[in-house]
Design brief:
4 helices, globular, about 80% helix, mainly alpha, single chain
Length: about 140
């Protein structure tokens, strides 16, 4: 968003692309873990998704830092890890919001879980973009 609150189509397109790539990375990492590394229920349904989620977070963050929001970062080690900390918290909170919305939409509209998930993803995607735009990768005020 710029100072007038208008979403930049280019930034939003990069954001969406980053998240689509992250979905592929998450799915591929999950598949590798459950195919080659984990056997028990706990490993496959708790540990593997947790690890694949974190791999996707790191992937999405790096794409966000060096591509999507590259004009808004300092490109220092400290800045990278400082923003990564807040980005990770943001991802976890947005994920929890998605779960809450999925349950609420399901209860209110009695739709199939896939449709509830898509609606929840749409809402949380917009929230996630706004949080990244306004907080994590906010534009620095120009001196002068």
């Amino acid at each position: 968003m710029n100072t007038q609150g208008i979403i930049s189509p280019i930034l939003f397109g990069k954001f969406v692309s980053t998240n689509l790539i992250g979905t592929v990375v998450d799915t591929l990492a999950l598949w590798v873990l459950v195919t080659f590394a984990f056997d028990t229920y706990l490993e496959r349904y708790v540990l593997a998704p947790t690890i694949s989620f974190q791999i996707a977070v790191l992937n999405n963050y790096s794409l966000s830092y060096f591509w999507t929001w590259k004009g808004r970062v300092k490109k220092t080690v400290r800045d990278y890890f400082q923003k990564l900390f807040f980005y990770t918290i943001n991802c976890v909170l947005v994920f929890l919001l998605k779960l809450a919305l999925l349950v609420a939409i399901s209860a209110l509209l009695d739709l199939h879980v896939v449709f509830c998930n898509l609606l929840a993803l749409t809402i949380t995607g917009l929230v996630n973009f706004a949080l990244q735009d306004r907080l994590i990768f906010r534009q620095q005020k120009k001196a002068g």
